[in-house]
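Recall from the previous chapter that SMILES is a line notation for molecules. Here it describes nicotinamide-adenine-dinucleotide.
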Amino acid sequence: MKRAAVIGLGAIGPIHLAAIGQNPGITLAAVCDIDRQTREKVPQDIPFFTDYMEMIREVKPDVVHICLPHYLHVPVAEAAVKAGAHVFCEKPVALNTAQAEEFAAFEAAHPDARIGICLQNRFNESIEMLRDIIQGGEYGTVTGLKGIVPWSRPKSYYDEQPWRGKMEYAGGGCMINQSIHTLDLLYYLGGPVGSLRASVSQLLDYGIEVEDTVSARLNFRNGAKGLFMATNANYKNESVQISVQMEKGEFIITDNILSRLGENGEKEKLAEDAKMPGTKFYYGASHKKLIALFYEALENGSREYVHVRDAVMGIRLIDAIVEAGRTGKEVFLPENAD
Ligand SMILES: NC(=O)c1ccc[n+]([C@@H]2O[C@H](COP(=O)([O-])OP(=O)(O)OC[C@H]3O[C@@H](n4cnc5c(N)ncnc54)[C@H](O)[C@@H]3O)[C@@H](O)[C@H]2O)c1
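With both inputs in hand, we obtain:
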């Protein structure tokens, strides 16, 4: 039985609490939040702290779950590892590429500690099957990829938690906070990106610092072309769409269903993602799956979870898109970073 502690009980913390509660191999040892009102989200017999270091020192959890604003991920993760804990940290892995690389070096320098990053959508049933199809080779090579994230965030989303709209605390907007999963999946499915052009903008008049809309043309190293579009300025949250064109077949994931497209656009359903009742449909159910894999890795030495080094490319792509948007020029990604 592993003992878990959760830091941050805002929007996503309760999803971790639910995944922990449903896993017979994990017990919730303590929780922490600077906002005392969040105490009501956990049973009264679970120790509640407002200082995470005090919690780690007193409770000595096996695993610390980090569900905090982005600027706290790396410092809290490193402090927890130095105090002897393993870490399961929400995305993004860091605020920017430089910090992500430093964190990957920290991970490499602490081989006894496991640090998992919550890019849970890699473990959606639809993505697992699509990756198997791509790697299986039956349909030839990938020639095109598209990822679209047509989401909506009201002004209250930023007003209620102002860190979400500030560069210093969030590191960015609709990319690092929302569509990072889709960008990561384009890389996970299509491989490394050699260069890109992009536009980055604010369509919403919310008075925030971070971007709410982006589009990017991605040139993958293997020759495939990609299109990535993401916004928080839609009128509602609609399904993420991921399309992959291969030499001998075309596939689409929409409404969490993977289909093969026939010659006339008809869909043959191949897989459907599990759903987590009571949560937002676009969170998916893979938090529970990835958290279970991470704890299994602690028991049996498996490497099957998202490591810090695996999550760096998503941040590298975001930084490149921001630079391309700012300069209006094609940005080339360093080859040795793949
Ligand atoms: N994987 C996903 O699909 C997914 C979905 C949503 C959010 N997230 C990520 O989860 C993280 C949290 O996002 P959120 O929307 O839940 O944020 P939030 O603002 O709703 O919650 C953060 C909580 O952390 C607490 N907190 C802040 N500073 C603290 C400190 N020093 N010590 C202890 N507690 C502190 C706040 O009081 C708040 O309750 C972010 O990294 C976000 O990107 C991931």
